[in-house]
Input
Amino acid sequence: MLKRVSKLRKNRQLIKALVIRVWNDDRASFAQLYSLTCDDIYNYCRYILKNDQRAKEAVIKTYSYALTNILGLMDPSLFEAWLRRIAFQSCFDMLLYSSDENMYMFSNPAELESIPFFERQILFMYDNRNLSEAEISRILGITPRKVSAHLKSARTHLIQLKGKGLNI
Output
């Protein structure tokens, strides 16, 4: 376990250094960032989209956006979280605008946008993609208890928004 934590810490330090190099126009460093993170991003997209080809398309969109907008990332230590957020949005958009998805499965996309990102992705995976709390826990690398807490919090936020009479 200690070796795994040490390896993760080293990877995070390497990712941070690579982001800084990309900021300085080193495209080869972006290729290294891709190789360090693409498996996790692909698996994340695969869980959400439930389709290999569409997951590959989402990965392409994610990294294209990341490369174009990496200068907007203020803290290089947040690269992995930023990338996952981009991946979520890519998958969400693909599902929302896909002709083979039931548009009514999204009760109101504005509702999802109104709650914090971490809660939004968990609620979306659970309610719209029918993933179990255990699956979400594995995907996000958090405990099932945290998944449950974030689901409860997301639902509470939505109820509060509706209670305030917001038109979402």
In short: The radius of gyration is 17 Å. The longest helix spans residues 27-49. The chain has a mean pLDDT of 85. The domain at 1-98 is CATH 1.10.1740.10 (Rna Polymerase Sigma Factor; Chain: A).
